[in-house]
Specification:
The protein is α+β, with helices and mostly antiparallel strands. It is built from 14 helices and 13 strands. It folds into three domains: 118 residues, 2-Layer Sandwich (Alpha-Beta Plaits); 171 residues, Orthogonal Bundle (Trigger factor, domain 2), CATH 1.10.3120; 103 residues, Chitinase A, domain 3 (Roll), CATH 3.10.50.40. The strands form four sheets. Strands 7, 8, 9, 10 and 11 form a five-stranded antiparallel beta sheet that branches. A hairpin with a 3-residue loop joins β1 and β2. The longest helix has 33 residues. The chain is extended and about 95 Å long. The C terminus is likely disordered.
Length: 478
């Protein structure tokens, strides 16, 4: 068998494979034998069907096609192994299969062309001495007070309200149903999927529901019905609802106010494992300071890795991109499912192609980041010892549900990649400059939705800020 390689765009290797006469004959005879053993032809026992009868019943073209399929698969596997090609995913047949079938003859040579995706070669610019800016998150003592207020709210006594209007902080029992605000001409507005509920209890606090929903209830009195116009956020979890205008008809059935308990040592014992309020405060302060440090470090990591990704030049194979898109969509589906959402409403034959295309920039950015980290670690000999790996894997297992079925090989792979990433980021920081700037300087709230549009169109570098900027409300409770 003769193999000729050709480098193709998008990290593909083209293979021209010349099949020997002996290989074509063996493949054809093997298929004949397989059909002879398995063919169920009236008047003949299995394994005793004459060759000529088999050719008539099965058809010579079908036999040649079956032999050719096996021959192509086996030849490419052998070529990849012999040539020591690091393949990703399945091969792509570049020759027309029908033409190959027409030209195939047992005992005669045959040449076909295929392509395989391979591990991409990365070109990385000068990564030593990176200069970046990252937002520094400052500890705010008010966060402790807010958490204590949340605990008080959870332990509050509810008192019915009859004649007073709803105000912020009250608990409301409502019936509601929603419909889209607009519909094609001549049609009635459609109801919103999952946008209907009875005896729905909600705390009248900003951010508890769709923007505008809680605000519309404020001022209502028990027994009152009102229509409220709202707008779903453009970044809403459901593609079907994101950015859409809607109208909710809301009936306020009951209203209760909260009588908050006093902040005492007894209260601290009720909501935590601490004996005194002072101990609870100290624990919350420690936790929030640790969280502030974590978020600042996350901002530094993000800034360094974004700068690193900009130095990457690489042609990504389609297989690698599609695998990463699959992973992102799977994560999204799992998250929605954990929220109790029926993902079948959102992952349909119509929405999935759109979602895949929207996920493509993020997938490309994630792959580039991963490849860049791997390259820096390789060049700077940043390795993970077996002891470090085992220790971290033990920590991860302790955090998981004991009933969780964990693939040990996959766990090892993920933990090792994470440790290499940590060491690489630390190296970049030690060999670069990170200027800390006040929180909100780089990502003002009003502009957060616009960031990444210019970069993400081509490079996919519009990773979200959620993890780095995430709050940890209520983390202090022991």
């Amino acid at each position: 068998m003769k193999v000729t390689q050709e480098k193709l765009p998008s990290s593909q290797i083209g293979l021209e494979i010349e099949i020997t006469p002996e290989m074509s004959k063996n493949a054809y005879e093997k298929v004949i034998q397989q059909f002879t053993r398995s063919a169920n032809i009236p008047g003949f026992r299995k394994g005793k069907v004459p060759r000529q009868i088999l050719l008539q019943r099965i058809g010579q073209r079908n036999l040649k096609a079956a032999a050719l399929e096996d021959l192509i698969q086996d030849s490419i596997r052998k070529a990849v192994a012999d040539e020591k090609i690091q393949v990703i995913g399945e091969f792509e047949l570049r020759s027309q299969f029908d033409d190959l079938v027409n030209n195939f003859e047992s005992g005669k040579p045959l040449t076909f062309a295929a392509a395989v995706d391979v591990v991409p070669e990365i070109t990385l610019g000068e990564y030593k001495g990176l200069q970046v800016k990252a937002e520094e998150v400052k500890f705010d003592e008010n966060e402790v007070n807010k958490t204590l207020d949340n605990y008080r709210s959870e332990k509050a006594t509810l008192i019915p309200i009859e004649d007073q209007p709803a105000k912020e902080g009250d608990m409301a029992l409502v019936d509601f149903h929603g419909r889209f605000a607009y519909a094609p001409e001549g049609e009635e507005p459609q109801e919103i999927p999952g946008g209907k509920a009875e005896d729905f209890q909600v705390e009248l606090t900003e951010g508890q529901f769709i923007p505008g929903f809680i605000e519309g209830i404020l001022g209502m009195k028990p027994g009152e019905t009102k229509e409220i116009s709202v707008q779903f956020p453009t970044e809403y979890g459901s593609e079907e609802l994101a950015g859409k205008a809607a109208v909710f008809s809301i009936t306020l059935k009951e209203l209760k106010g909260k009588e908050l308990p006093e902040l005492t040592d007894d209260f601290a014992q009720e909501v935590s494992d601490f004996d005194t309020l002072a101990e609870l405060r100290e624990s919350l302060e420690t936790r929030y300071k640790a969280d502030v440090e974590r978020r600042t470090n996350a901002n530094k990591e993000e800034a360094l890795l974004k700068a690193l990704v900009k130095l990457v030049e690489v042609e990504l194979p389609a297989t690698m991109i599609n695998q990463e898109i699959d992973y992102l969509l799977t994560q999204q589906a799992m998250q929605l499912s954990n929220y109790g959402v029926d993902i079948r409403q959102f992952f349909t034959s119509e929405t999935i192609p759109v979602m895949r295309e929207r996920s493509r920039p993020d997938a490309i950015a994630r792959i580039k980041e991963s490849l860049a980290i791997r390259e820096v670690a390789k060049r700077e000999s940043l390795t993970v010892t077996e002891e470090e790996l085992q220790e971290e894997m033990k920590k991860v297992r302790q955090q998981l549900d004991p009933n969780t079925d964990v693939d040990p090989d996959r766990l090892r792979e993920v933990v090792q990649a994470d440790l290499v990433k940590q060491k690489t980021v630390k190296w970049l920081e030690e060999n670069g400059t990170v200027e800390l700037v006040p929180e909100g300087t780089l990502n003002p709230p009003a502009e957060a939705g616009d960031e990444g549009e210019d970069e993400g169109e081509d490079e996919g570098e519009d990773e979200g800020e959620d993890e780095a900027q995430g709050e940890s409300q209520g983390e202090g409770q022991e």
